[in-house]
Write a structure and sequence with these properties.
- This protein is mainly alpha-helical.
- 69% of the residues lie in helices and 0% in strands.
- The chain contains ten helices and no strands.
- The model has no long low-confidence stretch (mean pLDDT 89).
């Protein structure tokens, strides 16, 4: 074990390659999280409503991130280990179920590939150490939150809140920023979007965003510090505006169609994670 750690520490190429492979495997698990966590939340809400109404919760088979085993949505074919190799299985099967030939969503391979590539890049960018391992946690969380928000317009507390606390703990000894900056980043991140939410609601009588967005920006602030928040908000707002206009023009979506803001916050946070200080030096200089 010591020799493996020493090898990873001494060879940036090896560390990046191993991190990419680990990222691919984590990406495969994130596909399960993206698919199942919203359904688990829905089941939990139904049970809570039943309890409030004085009824017994509905009895259902175990459903969590482990059980039941992953299956084809069309035919119920249990996915074997050889069919679950990240990216490679999708390419080998040509994007189809081996049993019934139904189409497998390309996004499955996209999530795995994106997680692997970003994990490998984080290893190369930060080198072997706590900074890289912290970046892995941020990347994996952002990938899961992005696709859950796209699918359901939800940002689960079960991801955002642990991510926020993990950021504060990570910066206890000055991981990416000082502890004081991390605490201020968490507070200002939440309050900034909370203030915009209420100003927009008072002015228009409509809700412009959800509370999950506040918590996500608070988590980003806890990891990167208060100084990075203006950059994150600027980047996510610009990308969000461009994407919103493109969806209206190209996809013929109405202006009243809700657009999840979480993916843009996640994108802005990841850009700031890797290049925030360099970008800050450019515009401050």
């Amino acid at each position: 074990m010591d020799s493996l750690v020493l090898a990873l520490e001494s060879s940036l190429s090896l560390f990046s390659a191993v991190s990419t492979i680990v990222g691919l495997m984590v990406g495969s698990f994130l596909n399960v999280v993206i698919c199942r966590l919203p359904k688990m939340m829905e089941n939990d809400w139904k049970d809570q409503c039943a309890e409030l109404a004085g009824k017994s919760p509905e009895k259902r088979p175990p459903f969590n991130l482990v059980f039941p085993r992953s299956r084809c949505d069309s035919c119920g074919h249990a996915i074997s280990s050889i069919e679950n190799i990240p990216v490679l299985s999708y390419l080998f099967l040509r994007g189809k179920c081996r049993h019934c030939g139904s189409r497998i969503l390309p996004r499955t391979a996209l999530v795995e590939a994106a997680t692997g590539i970003m994990s490998g890049f984080a290893a190369w960018h930060f080198g072997f150490g706590m900074a890289a391992f912290g970046a892995f946690l941020v990347i994996w969380s952002m990938v899961a939150l992005t696709f859950i928000d796209i699918d359901t317009q939800l940002l689960p507390d079960s991801i955002t809140l642990p991510l926020l606390w993990a950021g504060l703990l990570f910066n206890l000894e000055g991981g990416f920023t000082s502890l004081a900056s991390a605490v201020l980043g968490a507070a200002f991140g939440y309050l900034s979007l909370w203030s915009i939410y209420w100003l927009f609601k008072i002015a228009t009588k409509k809700e412009g965003m959800g509370y999950g967005d506040f918590k996500l920006l608070a988590a980003i602030g806890a990891w990167l510090g208060a100084a990075q928040l203006p950059l994150v908000i600027l980047l996510s707002s610009v990308v969000g505006a461009i994407s919103g206009i493109a969806l209206i023009v190209l996809a013929k979506q109405g202006r009243g169609t809700p657009i999840p803001f979480g993916p843009y916050l996640a994108g802005g946070g990841l850009i700031a994670l890797f290049w925030g200080r360099e970008i800050a030096r450019l515009y401050l200089g």
